[in-house]
Design goal:
about 80% helix, mainly alpha
Length: about 190
Amino acid sequence: VFWGVTVATFHVLFAYTLVGVGVGLAVTPASKSLMASLPSSRAGMGSAFTDLTRDFGGSVMNAIMGSALAVAYSAAIAKVLATLTPAQSTELGTAATQELLGSFEGAQEVARNYPAGSSAQIISAASQAFVDGKELAVSIALVLAVASAFLVWFAYPRKAEELAFFASIAAENERETAPGTAQTAPSA
C-alpha cells in the first residue's frame, strides 16, 4: 500500500516518518545504554564501538539494499524489454536498452527521445521496475532486522562470557566511583 507507483506522496512520507521515529527512539537509548554500562576509563572504547557498529551496519545495509534494488530494477526492465517485437528492439537500439537497464534516470533520458505515448510507456515501466526493486530492498531489510532481533533476543545475551564481561565492567565501575579511590589506568 505504501510503495505503489500511483501512491500518494503522503503515504510514502508517513511510512518514512514511522521509520525515522523508530530509529530515533531506538538509537539514542541504545547508545546511552552502551555508554552507561562502561566505566569512564573505557568511554573512548564505548564511543568507538558505537560509531563502528552504526557506520558499519549502515554501510552494509545500504550496499545490500542498493544491490537488491538495482538487480530487481534491471530484471523488471529486462522482462518488459523481452516483450518487444524485433522491430521495436531494433528501433530502441543497444545504447538505449543499456540506459533503460541501468537506472530510472536512464529510462527518463531514453523517454525524452520518444513521442509522448511511447515516452509514457517507458516511464511507467521504469516506475514499476523501481517500485519492484524498492519492495525487494525493504523486504530484505525487514527480514534481516527481524532475524537480527531474534538472534540478539535468543542467543546473544545468554552467553556466559558476555555476562561475565559485564560483571567485570560493573565491578570496575564501582571501584572507580567509590569514595576515596584514585582513578587508575585501565588494565587492557
